[in-house]
Specification:
By secondary structure, the protein is α/β, with parallel strands linked by helices. The chain is built from 23 helices and 21 strands. The longest helix is centred in the first third of the chain and has 31 residues. Bound molecules: adenosine-5'-diphosphate and magnesium ion. The site of magnesium ion has 4 residues, from helix 9. Magnesium ion binds next to helix 9.
């Protein structure tokens, strides 16, 4: 039985080597190959030769005006020439070394030529010829596939053709008829054919619309199926005492914002239900997620369960531990800090206390999910700055203990597009309000030769009692170089400011005690200027810091810059963000301008999405955002939203699985169900 799941080696001419090469393009099965769609097509839209530039690629359509003339020179070299009437102009067309085209060129017939315009000679150097056949049906438009150094364009073309011919009869339509009719979509077989071998632009458009819809719909169907399953996964009903939670809230030194109150309610409602919570808490940097987490932790522990809080860096874990210890002073919350750098003895002791339940709040880095940690009764697992964790790590925390409720927190504002793709299977709570009294951070972009002015500014600010972060240039994939950079910058600043102020250094290679010392010195005002690598990017909270100075700012992505900027403006004093950069690309310039023009995390994220494409915004590997083959989460947002609603509706339709027509879809889902959308 032929099936689209057959390995590509089923195709003639595909051996182990070719299969390996195809795998580098993620093509493993015949189905993968058939849905490996062209990136673009040589199109038929004719070029206006009057405005065409010399050497420009052109498409010209016209009538053959002269008998094609074949001249040979030397061994295997030849030229085919003819005149073409294009509008009212006659141009010369030359094809080199394609003598066989002669038979297809017939006087007075219409043809289309792809090639290069040679303005001086008013001639086209042809590369490809399209003729109309007698029946009037055109040849296909040229599909151009994305390839890499292992696989050739012509190889893909040939294999797709072969695959289509051999397997076309087993291409089942997955989309239900009602949906296909509603949106006037094609049958799957026709769609695949038109995508690879389009005959005219209109058909291609419909094919693409079908492919995008199908891709989004199937994806959303899987996501919604996971969500349904999740919602029905039994979990702990965390029955805390509401009045005790309320009186704990009274001890907080500030009034919760309306948004904080709302999300606390959403979370607490989930905690009480006997199902596993799977919720994403989203709020811009500084919106106050920590206290929300603290309340959820309090409720959990109040009900007799343990809670765990996982942070992406040791610095952040330590900071949480300190902060929460203060918040929970005098309550039954007994917390422990578990990081990778604990000595084996301490680690053992802590692990034992966690297992016995003597410690009911465990804070840590991914050491939390190590196998050696067993919980007595984990009721709630919180993941802070969750985009920093791989999906596997998130999953592992979920599987710890007995289906703990999971709350993932992120400061990365997620545009709607991403919210319904990467997090489509989670419930989402949003803190969309900042604590009262915050002043927007003023952001300035300075060229490197203006950095003396920046230093003057910093000097002034320091004189007024400000504290300053200085972030050193980022060097991708080299922590050693990062550290070197930060150290050099630190020395420069120490020289410049050292006589009047304390300058500190913070980087990832320092050990815990050193880090903690520096952090607390900075927080307590013993250090005024803190030079650091991006280890301070996430979460670090010092409301007295009012200047963030970032060197080579154009090396950072927008999301990261926004995070860094979020380290200041956390108190009621006016704060500043200084970007020092000489961007070398338009993108870099655009990023600097975006930062200067808005403080709104959602706007920054949206711009980031547009500049980089969805897959890169949160880091492809970590975000779980699939790499859509045709669909573009920005350009095709409407289709994505429609597909999501349709998928939801279908899953809610009683007995939809029993409808004959839906069998291919059911089969498709069952096969994928074991795998999540993450792999
Ligand atoms: P993030 O959402 O970035 O994790 P934090 O939880 O660190 O933000 O909160 C940022 C700062 O705002 C902290 O110093 C915190 O104590 C303070 N904060 C949080 N909520 C409020 C509030 N409702 N009113 C005033 N200050 C608040
Ligand atoms: Mg935080």
């Amino acid at each position: 039985m032929k099936s689209l799941n057959d390995p590509v080696t089923q195709l003639t001419g595909v051996g182990v080597k070719t299969a390996e090469h195809l795998a580098s393009l993620n093509i493993k099965t015949v189905g993968d190959l058939l849905t490996y769609y062209p990136a673009r097509y040589d199109d038929f839209a004719p070029t206006d030769l009057r405005t065409a530039k010399d050497k420009q690629k052109v498409t010209v359509s016209g009538t053959v005006m002269s008998e094609p003339l074949l001249s040979r020179f030397g061994y295997r070299r030849n030229r085919l020439s003819f005149r073409l009437l294009v509008g009212h102009d006659v141009v010369l067309v030359n094809f080199f070394n394609q003598p066989y085209l002669k038979d297809r060129l017939i006087l007075n017939q219409d043809v289309t030529v792809f090639g290069k315009w040679e303005a001086n000679r008013q001639q086209v150097l042809g590369s490809k010829l399209i003729t109309k056949t007698v029946a009037g049906s055109q040849e296909e438009m040229g599909a151009i596939y994305p390839v890499n150094k292992h696989v050739r364009q012509s190889t893909i073309r040939k294999l797709v053709k072969q695959a289509y011919h051999k397997y076309q009869d087993v291409i089942a339509t997955l989309l239900p008829l009602a949906l296909r009719q509603r949106y006037q979509l094609m049958e799957r077989r026709q769609m695949i054919k038109e995508m690879h071998f389009p005959k005219d632009p209109a058909q291609l458009k419909t094919a693409r619309r079908t492919a995008v819809y199908e891709e989004f719909f199937l994806f959303q169907l899987r996501l919604q199926a996971i969500k349904l399953t999740n919602e029905q996964t039994p979990g702990n009903a965390i029955l805390y005492h509401n009045d005790e939670l309320k009186s704990f809230i009274q001890t907080i030194p500030f009034e919760l914002t309306g948004a904080q109150k709302r999300v606390v309610n959403e979370i607490c409602r989930d905690l009480r239900r006997p199902y596993q919570m799977n919720r994403l808490l989203q709020g811009d940097v500084g919106s106050g997620k920590t206290i929300v987490a603290a309340l959820a932790i309090y409720a959990t522990i109040n009900a007799g369960y343990q809670a765990a809080l996982m942070a992406p860096t040791e610095i952040l874990a330590m900071q949480h531990a300190n902060k929460l210890a203060k918040i929970f002073a005098g309550t039954p919350v007994k917390s422990g800090l578990l990081t990778g750098s604990l000595k084996p003895k301490e680690h053992q002791r802590l692990a034992a206390a966690i297992k016995k339940g003597e410690i009911n709040l465990v804070i840590g880095t991914h050491a939390l999910i190590q196998d050696s940690i067993d919980y007595a009764n984990l009721g709630l697992a919180i993941i802070d700055e969750q985009h920093r964790f791989g999906v596997k790590q998130r999953q592992a925390l979920r599987e710890k203990g007995n289906h703990p409720d999971v709350l993932a927190m992120t400061a990365t504002p997620i545009p709607r597009t991403l919210a319904i793709t990467s997090y489509g299977e989670m419930d989402i709570s949003i803190i969309d309000e900042m604590p009262a009294g915050r002043k927007p951070v003023e952001t300035r972009w300075l060229r490197e030769n203006q950095s003396p002015a920046a230093l003057d500014f910093v000097d002034q600010q320091l004189e007024n009692g400000a504290q300053v972060y200085v972030v050193s240039p980022l060097i991708e994939q080299s922590e050693t170089l990062d550290v070197q950079n930060a150290t050099e910058l630190y020395e420069r600043f120490a020289k410049y400011f050292g006589s009047k102020y304390q300058v500190g250094l913070l980087h990832g290679r320092m050990d815990n005690e050193e880090k903690e010392q520096v952090m607390s010195d900075f927080k307590e005002g013993q250090i005024q200027v803190l030079v650091a690598t991006t280890v301070i990017e996430v979460g670090v909270d010092n409301p007295n810091a009012t200047v963030m100075m970032i060197y080579n700012a154009d090396q950072f992505g927008l999301a990261q810059l926004h995070q860094l900027r979020g380290r200041v403006g956390r108190g009621d004093r006016q704060s500043y963000c200084l970007l020092i950069a000489d961007p070398k690309t338009d993108d870099g310039v655009e990023r600097m301008n975006t930062m200067v023009s808005t403080n709104d995390g959602f706007k920054v994220a949206q711009r980031d999405l547009e500049l980089r494409g969805s897959g890169n915004v949160l880091g492809k590997k970590q975000s779980g955002i699939p790499d859509f083959k045709v669909g573009d989460t920005v350009g095709d947002l409407k289709i994505l939203q429609i597909a999501r609603n349709d998928a939801e509706d279908l899953l809610k339709t009683p007995r939809w699985e029993e409808v004959d027509e839906n069998q291919p879809l059911v089969l498709y889902l069952t096969r994928r169900k074991l795998k999540t959308h993450f792999d």
